Structure formats: C-alpha cells, structure tokens
C-alpha cells in the first residue's frame, strides 16, 4: 500500500491511497485499489456547504465526483471516492504507474482550500519464463561420448526449477536425440563414432520452459587404429604399417605422427595421408630413435592416436675410399652412420657427408673431422691438396680448414649452402706417405639437443702433383727500377699521382675520387652553385656499345671435354643511329645452352647502359670577378662538379688558364671526367 499526502488549511490532509489487490499472470495485469480522502486537522472541525469537487487518475484511468457539503465536527476523515482499476504490465512483467488526486474546495463555499496529491507506484513483477541459457563449450570428446557445458541467464522473476541438455545427430535435433536433466555440465554417452553431434540446453521455472539455447557441434572421433609395424627397410627409410579402427564412419584418411621423444614434444612431424595402411618416411637423420603413432582423420579433424612404437635408424656408409672419422666425438653426439660419415652426392657431384645430431649440451672440439692416409708419393716433389664443401641448411658447425699432417694448415673457411672452396695447401713430400685432413676450424658449442650439429658435404677433393721447370718455392723474383718508376707503380696502384714542384719538392696527390668537391658550377639558378659564361661539351662515342658478343668457355654434358658457345646481343635502334660498335665478353658458365633468362636480362641491361653516346664537358669558362675568393682557390688537380643540359659530371681540373685585363678576369678550366654517379637530373 502507498499513501500520498498533501496539506490543506488548518492542518487538514488530502490523502491518496494506492493498494495492489490481485494479479492475473495469464492476463499480465494487476487490479489496483485506490481511495481519496480528507483527514481532519486542528480545531473543533470545519464545515461548509457545497458543492465541492474531487478527481483521480490511476495509471491513465480517470475518476471524479463531488460532495454537497462537509462537516468535520462529526467525523475525523471524509472519503471522497474509492475504487479499483486493472493495469497491464510490460512484456517483461514490470509495472510502474503514475497516480494523481485533486480536491477543489470551491472557495466560494469552502474553508479548506484546494490541493493536489500523487506519485509513482511500482507493483510486484509478474514472472515470465527464463531466458535461454548460453552454451560454453564441448570438451572431453571420445569415440563414444562428449561433455557439454552451459550457464543460465535471467530467471525473469521465478526461480529455476529444472535445466535440460539435448544432444542429436542433426542441427534440427530430430535424429538420435538424447534429452537429459542437467546442472550445467552434462556428459552424453553411447554416441556413434564418426558422426557430428549438436548440443543445446534450456531452463524451466513456474511459468514454463525457456527457449532452447543456441547450439554447438563437434565430431565424435573414431577409435584409434593399431600401429602394427615401425621398422627400417633396406634403403635406410622407416616404414609404418597399421590396421584400420574398429569403426570407420566418415573416415577420410590417416595422420602419421613422428617425434624424437615419447611425449611427442620434440621434433614433431605430421604426415596427413589418404586412406592407406602404410607409409614410408624418407630423409630422416641416422643415428636417432624415432617415435611414431597413427590416428584416423575425419571431416572433424584428427581422432585418437594409437599406441606408439619406436625404432633406431642406422644408415649405410657406402664406399668411403679410405676416408675415416678423426678426433674424439663427445658422448651426447651421434652420427647418421656407424662410421661417422657416408658416401653421397651434392647435386650431381660425389661427396663425403658428415652428419651428426646431439641429445644434449656439449662442445665439439676442433680436432674432429675426416682424414685419409695416402701412399705412393715421391719424396722431393711438390703436391697440392685442395677441396670444396657445402652445408645443408644451417648446422652449428660451419667453419672448416684443410690440414696436411706434418706440413701446414690452410686458413679457416666459413661455409654456406652453396659450394665453397676450402683453399689449398702446397707442400713438398718428405716421404712416400702423407695424411690429409679436413677439420673443424674452431670448437663448436652445442647448447642443447640439436638435429644439426654437423651437416656438411666435402667434395672435389684432390691431391695434385705439381710439375715445373724450376721449383716455384725456390724461385726468387727481383724488380729493378729507378725512383720515378717506383713512384709510378705505387701511385698507379691506388689511382694517385705525383709531381715535382718548381721548388724541387716531390708532391703526391690523392685519387680524384677521394678528394672533396671544391666547387659546383651550374647552368641553372642555384644558391649552392656558381655560374659559368661558356662551356665546351660533346658526345663521347668511345664507350658506346650496341653489339655484345659473349663467348662461354664451358664443358659438354659429360663434364669431360671443352665445349664453347657464342651468344650475340644487339641494340638495333642504337646500331641504326650510330652504326655497329661491338665489344666481346668472355664467360665461364656451369649450365648448358639455352641459358637461364637471367643471363639475357643481364646482358640487355649492360647494352641499355651503353648504347647511347655520353655527353662530356671538356672545358669551362668562368668570370672570376663574380666570386674572387672561389676563383683564387681553384687549382690543378681539384675536384669539381659541372651541371650542363641536365647532365651532372664529376670532373678533375687538369689545366687552368687566366685571361686578366684591366676590366675583366676570365678563367678557363680544362676538365677530365671522373665518373657520373648521379645520372641525368
């Protein structure tokens, strides 16, 4: 019940009383009672003849009336009017109503005065069915069961009496449906392997069931196949065989999984296969234990894995031609083969492969490598030991060096994945026997388990006997010359120059390209450059080339006999304009014709850069009076930049002449072009 009061004269009160009488859940409405009265105030009691008027409005429903008189000498309160109205709730069951009451004393007759009273009243909510729950997840899926979890939402005014979860084989929940009471977590059992299942949920309160929630779906996996074999074949590969699972609904293939540990956390490889029952795995590193397991695949993904099997892979070394492993390999490191190296190829070239892996941290010393002892040498004769090597991927060991025991060691060479020469060692045999070695150049730190400690192929290994008319190691070379020739040789080797000044002092000048730019001259207005009054320029055709004859000195497909090929590239537009200007180029390419398109593209770029004559500036004349400080500082040998007709020329002053008159001082600079690094502007 709610009372709303307002004061009248002499302490009298106008009161509007609102009550909630009955509610109709089906009609979604409440019967509201009301009464409007005046309560006596001070004194013996007011009285007056009428008429006097009153009115109310309850949630939009009006009522009104009048009384002919009042006499509070004989009662304590006066009921002006009362009644009931039915008010509807909103869709969620809520109702808040606005109420008002008024008293018109008709002051011509009355003594209480006028008044208004009222306010908002909120009534009890009429409960509704709950909101639909929210799915959380499907998990713990096996070949015959799954777990479904959800959470409830608003109960809409009435407590939840029951939750239900439902599972079916279609999104309409019409095939193979199961409906179970739930507390928010439900496990559905006896599912058919290989099928996709949908799940949903709902709740119930005193008003009925909520709508079904949205649905989730998942595929119930197939049972695991049986891995029946995981063995090495005669080719050095591991072969897996298995039998199918007991149920094959929706089977589309299998996944074979390999790893370097029983937890399948290291070196994992996955092979997604068609509906086959065997697979051969190639390219594995020898000397390692490999773990394998297999699972069925369906449209829903990979299903349960089989029991694992493991096998040690040991490769065959092949014909090693007398080469052996040398040095002590630490215990955590193992090789692909028992011998520590194997015969193989790199491309089409025969090679000796050194491949090792590590199960833990260690250091591989620089005494480790391969070696071979040769006999049949002739004491006193000169020999050359040479070899090349190529890395596979990026192993930890990358630097190697040649060594002839008792003679010398070649410099270290850092290898890459392209064939790289290890250099050579020339020596004079002291005996008929020699031991050749290829060793690590530096110790290799292995920080932990690694699949690639060593992955190197040694190839093109040769021991050559050197025959000369005079032992090269005993020959002396003597160069006799005068001091001027010595200066020429020294300066020409670095592009410098020298001269003897008038004072008799010999002076050396740096190469022009190493000098700073002394001044910049331009034919366009430029605040950072000087102007000139005349220029001598022409087109240089000496460097023009529009026909390129390329001769490749190669070998035939057997790589035994010399076979040369010729390729001609021309720039026809340049030939038409300037005549034929031919140059020759000699190459030594590995491949056979037709060559890769990159060669013709490179030759085309060479011609494009040289098929037009170059504009060269030979002489420059300036007015020295425009900048006396700059003009006085110019000297032979200085480097300057000249801009003419969009060409930027890097030049060196080779001569200066002055024309000095009483009213004018002109300087002529003879120039030698250095290069044109900027191109056309």
Tell me how many strands there are: 49
Main pleated sheet = 6 strands, antiparallel
Q: Based on the structure given, which CATH architecture of the largest domain is correct?
A: Sandwich
The name of the CATH topology of the largest domain is Jelly Rolls
What count of structural domains? 6
SS summary, helix count: 4
Alpha-carbon distance between the two ends? 95 Å
Shape: flat
Protein name: Fibronectin type-III domain-containing protein
Pfam families: fn3
GO molecular function, one term: hydrolase activity, acting on glycosyl bonds
Domain Fibronectin type-III: 132-223, 224-317
Task: Please describe what this structure looks like.
The chain is mostly beta strands and about 675 residues long. The protein folds into 6 domains: about 1-120, Immunoglobulin-like, CATH 2.60.40; about 135-220, Immunoglobulins (Immunoglobulin-like); about 225-315, Sandwich (Immunoglobulin-like); about 325-465, Sandwich (Jelly Rolls), CATH 2.60.120.260; about 510-540 and about 615-675, Elongation Factor Tu (Ef-tu), domain 3, CATH 2.40.30; about 545-610. Helix content is about 5%, strand content about 50%. It has 4 helices and 49 strands. Strands 25, 30, 32, 33, 34 and 36 form a 6-stranded antiparallel β-sheet that branches. The protein is flat. Residues about 470-475 and about 675-680 have low confidence and may be disordered. GO terms for molecular function: hydrolase activity, acting on glycosyl bonds. It holds the Pfam family fn3. InterPro entries: FN3_dom, FN3_sf, Ig-like_fold, Striated_Muscle_Regulatory. One of its GO terms (biological process) is polysaccharide catabolic process. This is Fibronectin type-III domain-containing protein.
